[in-house]
Predict the 3D structure of the following.
Amino acid sequence: MHLPDRTGRWLFQMLGGIAYRTMAGVRATVTANQARVLGVEPTSALAASAAREAFDLYARYWHDTFHLRALSPAEVNERTEMEGAEHIDRALEAGRGCIAVLPHMGNWDVAGHWMAVNGYRLAAVAEELKPRRLFELFLRHREELGMKIVPLSEGDNVGQRLAALLADNWVVALVADRNLSGRGVEVEMFGAVRRLPAGPALLSISTGAPLLVCAVYTTEHGWRIRIGEALEFERTGDTRADVTEFTRRMAAEFERGIAARPPDWHLFQPGWEA
């Protein structure tokens, strides 16, 4: 937080390069994920180049996430390009809140902070990290950025708390491109099957809150946030079938967002089972 921005970015870029060179297993995983998105073999030069850039952008994410608190609201707004905020405004006018879902792209902490700086009430869910001290560090950090955090460790109470926030017309942000439960919904992304969590679709269906797919991209001097229109489809009344269709439509939007800049997708775990 206390490093000059230019110095911090240079330092973290160096660390990203070191990680790329020394973490062979992670490098192979990222290269395979990038190859899948790009439609090339993992051995291709294009996949290797995309993976190298992915390490740089992920390092940039970590720098920006913590340096963000050193920026004034005016600097945050000056460095952030926002597209589609009117979709959130339109959703909130109905009074049922809205659910903003996004993949691990660009810098989602910046997106949450921009919302808070500009007067939106935003809540997010966070998985509990170990050791507990590390989780509490991230919890305090994101609260300082203006976000309300609901820990996943609350189990069944998570859905109830999110539903209550939506009823109070909050924006609930869910990073939803990784399935942490072992269940989830099978979807096709980039020509292969993977699983996404069913929670966002189920929450939208059960509360009536619209679901909007968002993406965040890293720019040279800041970030670009793109908020899509609320997803619509014809409901059948069969909750399981509707959740599945909703999640597949969400996956298709994730696919478009990721394809726009593959190296900005911070997927450093195996993205597909095969």
Q: What stands out?
A: The radius of gyration is 18 Å.
